[in-house]
Write a structure and sequence with these properties.
The chain is of the alpha/beta class. The chain is 38% helix and 17% strand. The protein has three domains: 2-182, Rossmann fold (3-Layer(aba) Sandwich); 193-357, 3-Layer(aba) Sandwich (Rossmann fold), CATH 3.40.50; 367-556, Rossmann fold.
Length: 562
């Protein structure tokens, strides 16, 4: 059976066929046919945003929280489309399945310097997994199927679909939309059995084994398989940076995040391990800075990855296994031999657990709880007050980088960060997307004052759509990372480092949200507790000592002799 529709109507029918629940977007004249069709699409919730960039972060957060595609619709070609670039670059770095749709110039006006003309095909190609420009109305459903399939296929990532005005307004006869399972892969690689057997032998013979759990464990919520293997081996698990929630915080074999931005206990384990099982991680920049300073050069690495080009890319491996990470963990469990004398391995694991316990106790004991508010005191307060089921989002910047391993993540998926893109201005908007995906969970977004100032207009979005997240603004009145580098490597020659902001608590109230101010550390806990219970979007403006600066990337300035 066929139905005559416009390209815009067909686009919405294609979204419905994908069981799309939310579309984040900003209206524009280039896509009015889509918005008019969206008006009648009762199964799709449209969340109107104030900037296409932050709308893309919302779609990104939604995608990561659900494992389904997040959809962003930029209604206007030209400037509406260009605003997507930062958000899509962020999603690409995070391997987040965002389907981005933008209106495009009418086909007959291309290359004529028309109003708001920009080459969107070329613009988006470097920052997406794939970009298409629809050539005709009848091709719209086909390209939507291709977009969703590409975004959700391993390795996942964002895609861009440009829809010219004449394509959206054009009429065509359309077949009934196909269900996704009719054109998608239904299985994942499980690992070569011979390699699985060899890996099991290496792990069984290991004296100081370590498992690194990365996004391949977190995003699949495959922690039970990873933990079962770790328990069988009595082997510590470290998590790759930004994936500290891959393994529940309370498990005794969880060492926390490794690497130069991780904690010293987890980092030592990877530096001393004789066999490393990397489950669903690239062992990349944030984990190692690409140096053997952060991983044992002599360790035998078993690298399990769903993306075959990632295996052995940065460090040579003993075994490279192309597999879904939880599946590989289950297969290893089935063939592993634990009958050998494991006294030395047990001692290795017991020593680590004692160090981990001492480290966590010292972290609390060393927290500075005096005025002015120090990061360590703020993080301890947050650990004490945040609900165990909270989803926590973060920006880049030194305060959030310090917070990444300073929070306790009790269940996957609880931590959402910019990962390798290092984006400021991500956290609040990402949190709104996560709250749409998981309305039953508390969502708490940590940001600096600079990053929140970039995205504050989305308070209107939160209020208008009752998206009740809590944003904690760690307000130190500066761009903290850059000011720390200017202090440590450029003799305190500050330029552009200090910023001013309005009182964010009062601004929140003007938007119709709830605002709280915490001038002193003792005021933080009651403010956050009230914010979590207020039934509205809430902002807690926390005054943090501007002098509490920390240079994270000291390696960046080795050339200066520092």
């Amino acid at each position: 059976m066929t139905t005559q529709m416009s390209g815009g109507q067909a686009a919405i029918e294609a979204l419905k066929a994908e069981d799309t629940k939310y579309v984040f977007g900003l209206i524009g004249s280039a896509t009015m046919e889509m918005f008019d069709a969206l008006y009648d699409a009762e199964s799709i919730n449209f969340i109107g945003v104030h900037d296409e960039r932050t709308g893309t972060h919302m779609a990104d957060g939604y995608a990561r929280a659900t494992g389904n595609a997040g959809v962003i619709l930029a209604g206007q070609n030209g400037p509406g489309a260009t605003n997507l670039v930062t958000g899509l670059s962020q999603a690409k770095a995070a391997f987040s399945p965002v389907v981005s749709i933008a209106g495009a110039l009418s086909s007959g006006h291309v290359y004529r310097d028309a109003f708001q003309e920009v080459d969107q095909q070329s613009l988006f190609t470097p920052v997406t997994k794939k970009t298409w420009t629809a050539p005709s109305a009848d091709r719209v459903p086909e390209l939507f199927r291709e977009a969703f399939r590409t975004a959700l296929s391993p390795r996942q990532g964002p895609v861009q679909l440009n829809l010219p005005r004449d394509v959206l307004s054009g009429q065509a006869e359309f077949e009934d939309m196909q269900a996704p399972q009719a054109y998608r892969n239904q299985s994942l690689p499980a690992g070569n059995p011979d390699l699985i057997a060899k890996a099991a032998e290496l792990l069984s013979a290991a004296i100081q084994p370590v498992i690194i759990a990365g996004g391949g464990i977190k995003n699949t919520e495959g922690h039970e398989a990873a933990l079962a293997l770790a328990e069988t081996l009595n082997c510590p698990i470290v998590t790759s940076p930004g994936h500290g929630d891959a393994i529940p915080f309370g498990h005794p074999l969880n060492a926390g995040q490794m690497g130069p931005r991780g904690n010293p206990v987890a980092s030592r384990l990877v530096k001393e391990a004789d066999v490393i099982l990397a489950l669903g991680t690239r062992i990349g920049f944030n984990a190692t800075f690409y140096t053997y300073d952060n991983i044992n050069r002599d360790a035998k690495i078993i690298h399990v990855e769903l993306e075959p080009t990632a295996i052995g890319r940065f460090f040579p491996v003993e075994l490279g296994i192309w597999s879904d990470a939880p599946t590989a963990a289950k297969l290893l469990m089935a063939v592993i031999n634990t009958k050998k004398d494991r006294a030395t391995t047990d001692e290795w694991s017991n020593t680590f657990q004692k160090e981990r316990k001492a480290y966590l106790e010292k972290r609390d004991a060393d927290a500075i709880m005096s005025h002015p508010t120090q990061p360590s005191g703020l993080f301890k307060t947050l650990r004490d007050v945040l609900p165990k089921d909270a989803a926590i989002t973060m920006d880049a910047g030194t305060l959030c980088l310090q917070a990444t391993d300073a929070m306790n993540y009790w269940s996957p998926k609880s931590l959402f960060t910019p990962l390798d893109f290092g984006l400021v201005g991500f956290s609040f908007a990402c949190g709104l997307g996560i709250k749409c995906a998981k309305p039953e969970r508390p969502v708490v977004s940590l940001m600096g004052d600079g990053g929140f100032g970039m995205t504050i207009s989305e308070l209107s979005t939160a209020v208008d759509h009752n998206i009740n997240t809590v944003t904690v603004v760690m307000n130190n009145q500066c761009w903290g990372a850059e000011k720390a580098y200017q202090r440590d490597f450029f003799n305190g020659r500050y330029i552009g480092a200090d910023i001013s902001s309005p009182p964010f608590d009062k601004v929140a109230e003007l938007y119709g949200a709830k605002g709280y101010k915490a001038e002193r550390l003792s005021e933080v806990a009651p403010a956050i507790e009230a914010a979590l219970q207020c039934g509205k979007p809430a902002v807690v403006d926390v005054s943090v000592d501007p002098a509490a600066l920390y240079s994270f990337r000291r390696d960046s300035f080795k050339h200066r002799g520092g």
